[in-house]
């Protein structure tokens, strides 16, 4: 069983549009365990660090400006293959490629205002979680339904 932790952000457009509950519910009901949660306005330095792999691309400055413009919600979640699973639930980055039923497929028609962000690899999940969460802000606990959700180690 590949238990992974990953970072999800509800971007400023998701918060402004009142979609926080709707979005968190999708991850919760899938069976992912919420292990960290905060509402914050992202400082410019943290946005620059988060999106450093995109430094130099034409959209970088606008992306940093957008991500720091209004509050966001940061979620840390854990579960079987959480990194890939969360990206599937979020949907593709490009609006014409995000399938209906995914968060972006249901709520987004713009590549920047695309409601959610999620880490795309184990390395980036570790890096991004450490940007958004301090030590002690990510919790270790068991959910009562965990044995059913995660299955046995066969
Ligand atoms: P996100 O999942 O937050 O990861 C990087 C972000 O860069 C992405 O969502 C988009 O919002 C943005 N992005 C990626 N490609 C482009 C592009 N071609 N034009 C504008 N923004 C982009």
Assign the CATH superfamily: Nucleoside diphosphate kinase-like domain
In percent terms, what proportion of residues is strand? 15-25%
Name the structural class: alpha+beta
CATH-derived architecture: 2-Layer Sandwich
Q: Return Rg in Å.
A: 15 Å
- How much is the average pLDDT? 96
Keyphrases for this structure?
single chain, 154 residues, alpha+beta, Alpha-Beta Plaits, 4-stranded antiparallel β-sheet, binds adenosine-3',5'-cyclic-monophosphate
Describe this structure in words.
The chain is an alpha+beta fold and 154 residues long. The protein has a single domain (3-136), classed as Alpha-Beta Plaits (2-Layer Sandwich). Helix content is 40%, strand content 18%. It is built from eight helices and four strands, in the order E-H-H-E-H-H-E-H-H-E-H-H. The chain has helices at residues 12-16, 20-30, 44-50, 60-67, 82-90, 103-107, 122-132, 146-150; strands at 3-10, 33-40, 72-80, 116-118. The protein has a four-stranded antiparallel sheet with strand order 2-3-1-4, with helices on both faces. The protein is globular, with a radius of gyration of 15 Å. The N and C termini lie close together (8 Å). The model has no long low-confidence stretch (mean pLDDT 96). The structure holds adenosine-3',5'-cyclic-monophosphate. Adenosine-3',5'-cyclic-monophosphate (CMP) binds at residues 54, 59, 63, 93, 111-112, 114, 117.
Task: Give a brief outline of the structure.
With 154 residues, this protein is an alpha+beta fold. The protein has helices spanning 12-16, 20-30, 44-50, 60-67, 82-90, 103-107, 122-132, 146-150; strands at residues 3-10, 33-40, 72-80, 116-118. The protein has a single domain (3-136), classed as 2-Layer Sandwich (Alpha-Beta Plaits).
């Amino acid at each position: 069983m590949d238990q992974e932790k990953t970072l999800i952000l509800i971007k400023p457009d998701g918060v402004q549009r009142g979609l926080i509950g709707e979005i968190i519910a999708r991850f919760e009901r899938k069976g992912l365990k919420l292990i960290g949660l905060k509402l914050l306005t992202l400082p410019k330095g943290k946005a620059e660090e988060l999106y450093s792999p995109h430094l130099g691309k034409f959209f970088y400055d606008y992306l940093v400006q957008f991500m720091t413009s209004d509050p966001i919600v940061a979620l840390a979640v854990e579960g079987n293959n959480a990194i890939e699973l969360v990206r599937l639930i979020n949907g593709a980055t490009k609006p014409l490629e995000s399938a209906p039923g995914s968060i972006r497929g249901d709520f987004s028609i713009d590549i920047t205002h695309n409601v959610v962000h999620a880490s795309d690899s184990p390395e980036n999940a570790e890096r991004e979680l450490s940007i958004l969460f301090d030590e002690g802000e990510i919790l270790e606990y068991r959910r009562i339904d965990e044995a059913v959700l995660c299955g046995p180690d066969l």
